[in-house]
Design brief:
Distance between the termini: 29 Å
Oligomer: single chain
Structural class: mainly alpha
Strand content: under 5%
Number of helices: 5
Number of strands: 0
Helix content: over 70%
Length: about 120
Amino acid sequence: MNFAHLHLLLNHFPIIGTMVGLGLFLISLVGKNEDLRRASLIIFPAMALLAIPTFFSGTGAQGAIRKTPGVSEALIERHQGAAMLALLFMEITGALSLVGLWKSQRTSRPARWNWSLSAILIFQL
């Protein structure tokens, strides 16, 4: 197993997990269910943590894929730029979700500004 295989294995977890968290988050907004909202606020930081090894395994995969004939260097650079942007938004979303969880422990529910900002950042992904 090389870094390209590891990268392909890891990259599915943050993507699918974020979609699951987003689905729970939207259902919690429609149904006004605080438990589902907290569950989604737990999923986002977990996916943000999984995004870190996914991003760094991409560097090793990049080295392996460059040796392959016919692979466009511009496409590799574009993919790396998109990955950096996605990692940035994932980490910000995870951090804001942690703030929302912390606020929900101090009060009975997360601050409205926090989950609104988290939703905006999620849709940027």
